[in-house]
Amino acid sequence: MIDITPNGTGLPGIEQLRIIVGAVMTVGLILSVLALIIAAIVWGFGANSSNPHLASRGKVGVLVACGAAIICGSAVTLVNFFWTVGQSV
Predict the structure, then answer these.
(1) What is the pLDDT of residue 4?
(2) How large a percentage of the chain has pLDDT more than 90?
(3) Which among 4, 67, 81 is positioned nearest to 31, based on CA atoms?
(4) Is the pLDDT confidence value at 1 over 80?
(5) How far apart are CA 70 and CA 2, in angstroms?
(6) 58 CB burial (10 A radius; 0-12, 13-18, 19+)
(7) Is the predicted pLDDT of residue 40 greater than 90, yes or no?
(8) Residue 47: partners with Cβ closer than 8 Å, 6 or more residues away
(9) What are the helix (H) ranges across 1-89?
């Protein structure tokens, strides 16, 4: 029976890599918020100017921004979940 688990100290630079990944997640969340604000503005302009194409683009933008925020925020949990599932196979 082989029992192998992730080793957080096995390679040099692991701690710096964790810091970089955390920073990238933060940037992703900030960009998601910015995209949400811009898409909401586009949606509002489209709705108030009776432009259904612009309003539709704004709605899609809001959904995409929310989806990106969900993925950025839940990335660690998703990876841990699938790691656990993979270990039970």
Answers:
(1) 80
(2) 76
(3) 67
(4) no
(5) 35
(6) buried
(7) yes
(8) 55, 58
(9) 14-48, 52-88
